[in-house]
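Standup notes
- DV: blocked on the single-chain target, sequence here:
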Amino acid sequence: MRFITTILLIFVAVGASGKGTYGGFVQDASTGKPVTEAKWEIMKNDSTVLGTRSVDNKGYCKFSIDDGAYILRISAPGFETVTGTLNVKDGDINDKMIIELKRATQSASVSTDSHKGNTLKGIIVSADGQPIEFASVRLLAADSTFVGGSATDGEGRFEISNNQTGNCRVIVSAMGFVPKTVDMDIARGVIDAGTITLVPEARTLGEVTVKGQSMTRVDGYLQIIPEKLQVKHAATGYQLLRNVMLPGLVVNPFNGSVTLFGQNVSLYINGEPAEYRMVQNLRPKDVEKIEYHDAPVGRYAGDFAAINFITRQQTTGGYVTLDAQQSLCGYLDGIYNGFGKINKGNTNYYVFGGYRMHNGAAVQMEKNEEFNLLSRSIERTFNSIGGRNRNYGEYGQLTVKNSGEAHQVSFTAGLTGAHSVATSSGRTVYSEPISLTQLTNSRTANTALSPRMSFYGNFNVRENNVLVTSFNASYTHSKYNYRYRADEDGVFSDTKDKTYNLSAQVMYRMGLKHNNSLLFSLKDNFRVASTDYIGTYGSWQHMWNSDMLLLAEYTHRLSQQLRFTLRSGLSMINTGLHNYDHENYISPVVYTQLTYNPTRSQQLNFRFEIKNSSPSLSDRTEAEQPIDMIMSRRGNPSLKDVKHYNLNLTYSTQIRRVNLALHLTGTYQDNALTTAYLPETDKLVLTTYNGDYKSVNFTPMVTWKVSDNFSLQTGGSLCHFDYDNKLEKQPFNFATGMVSLMYYWRNLSFNLRCNSTSRYFVSNYQRTFDPASVEFSMAWMHRNWRIDGWFDTYERANVRKWIDVSAYKMSQRMHGRFAAMVKVTYSFDFGKKVNRERMEADTSIDSSILK
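- DV (later): unblocked, structure below
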């Protein structure tokens, strides 16, 4: 512990460099175009010039400077000179400023676009009532489209000529002040926004300390502008999310999971739903901002939480990226990807493919079991003595996107293949009712091929009205082969499956007055599966399922701080199974949400939800599959739909560099899916029963940005579970905790996550004990190259699992390999530099086989 503390102190000490970095873009206040002849002068307080910097062809300039107070002067031929003061502190980084210069003959910030019929005007002042000169004022439409902008004059006044009407947003920013957003209803003519007051971010001896704010709450969601160090030390979208450390959010870049208080978070790129590999290969340097919807409404209706990456759009050029990931633990395990993107006008073309392979020893296992069958009781012990897991897969995909002022559409077609073989051998010893030792072995093989296609469209039908459509189709042909032998006896299964999936959604959102909104949504998921079981238990199954959801949502602002959302509709589920009557279920869906923001940095959110879900087709089959000589798994055609009742209460606040999030949730599921262990004369059957499920969970999370180079996150969870399927009723309590540390140093980044011991309880009545584990990663980057290395002690740990029900008792211990990986990435651009919104195929493969 003392050694770790010393290392952390060294990291903090090295990070205290005593320098600040400043920079920004110099623009013409009237046109917004770069002023390429501008110069920056840094002077002492006695006006002694320390240095001069010229801007590049984009009007950009950046410099680093030691601690202290300075005068900054920005000038250009034909423009008025801007002068300000800087109070530099250790590690300050503010290199994204926008400085607008007025022409020497120009009246301050009055737009010259005479054809625009509306005028928005107002005054920007500081907290003490003094006018703020050179403040940037931007007018955005309800969909965040830029309408117009201006800079304030010496009296803090601004005017923006425009042709926009309806709900709009005014964003005001100035050097040394906290940005402010004002929602307005714009009408024809001259609109007076009145006096807008900005709050200074920090002051020292009357001088403004220039410090950018990267996280602000805007209209019900959190807007994040990633900081330079956060972007520099991230290679994927998941790593960028981890680096920004959003309140309550837990990101695991090793497996791509993003959760908020244990619930999955939906991810989007430019408003379009994004699969795992799309985010995994998203270039952080091309993310303009991140929208974090922790109380989602509108197009994100139905999500527990949503994150939308907004990327920069380009019209020419392209780039290619190659990456290779390889295990360092003495066995074959690698993932290799290639990607290319071409931009042509408003159309983007994505072509990519990849290959993965794994060939390693199976996990070592010791298992003790006790069966209470109708005819007798059996005790046995299994010890693995060998085994191997091999899997290979490949994918390819083509995506075409087209964007315009009033639309965004994309089409994707892809093909995924997979093949896996898992073998296991061991010694099984029976102690009851007779003493018997058998050599057992099993072999499981899966082969699948899946083509898929999808369409997504976002259309601005009229002002503040948006139509969103999506369509997905896939076909999967898979084969499953299972063999189990105990000496000369054995069971087997050869199964072929064909599964068709079709899903479509239409959503229409209308923006109303006073920033209220109304949304209608119709969604249908249709699935058909034909499965042929040949083997110990033979059968033919044909099943189909349609899950339709009709919703209407209304969001009303009761005040600037209070927002209310009501979502209601009908869930219609139709299920058909060969030799069984069709079943139809119609259930109400209700969702209500109340969000209160007492200040810009605080939010209290209350949610209540009633919904239902349908069991999978593999659970509803009447087929039976062998596990070994004593156990088998059987479907249950009589399963009912599950009804969910969820209650959530969340509080979050930001205090300087510390974010605190508290979450309390209660859940009840009627007809919850649980595993039932049914004893028969000579075997035990595992099937699925409807039951009851209850849970209460309290989760506190704290993130602390100690410095620009060092951040930490810690939190935990207290949980209570209760499963009851009328055969077994078992409660379970557990607590868990974690701490995550991040440190940046030059071109290196370090990430350390420590997980406490934890216990879990799932629907098959299995309890799991995970020992404490450590995840560590380190990355180095230089120009177009990046090398990542990481290890995880979890796979090496002794994981214990056990089941204790009346018909079956089991205790199991598993020992895995130490897991360590290295990944090398190289990319190069051609033509004009473009945004690197790296996407990859959805390589998941569907199947309806009971396993």
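- Follow-up: The chain has five helices and 54 strands.
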